[in-house]
Amino acid sequence: MSDIVWMVNPKRDTFYHLLLRLKDSYADLLNSAGISFKTVNLEKINTLKLPMDYKQNLFLIFKEGINNAIKYSKCNKIILEANLNKDILELILRDDGTGFDIQKIKSGNGLLNMRSRARTIGGELVIDSSGEGTQIKFTGKILSLKKVVLPFLK
To answer: Which of 38, 111, 39, 44 is nearest to 72 (CA)?
Structure first.
């Protein structure tokens, strides 16, 4: 329920708030599992204001990705990287776990839902996995980019 309340709060519609919510959602679980969570390049776009549908779908895509990494990958490290080139947003979630064979995934809806959510917001989700880990890469155009000034980030 708290995710729903957070999702519709217009005071928390920046990329910074999205990242903070993801980190807070998994902080205890990551700590108890001994998994480090690092971010790359987020400071460059943390004031990016996200449309609500973008925020909701990105949150759910990467929440599923982090959950899967914790649950299945036996990883020690998860990295979330963000890049913005004009109006193209790229988010990459990587882990250093055991990986999996995408062709052998028959049950569950997680990967299907993640791809569907990416398409819903006009993006693409590419999932690569090997014995050296898994990478989930979202690429999508943000139609109405806005930057906001967060007083605590000045």
So the answer is: 111
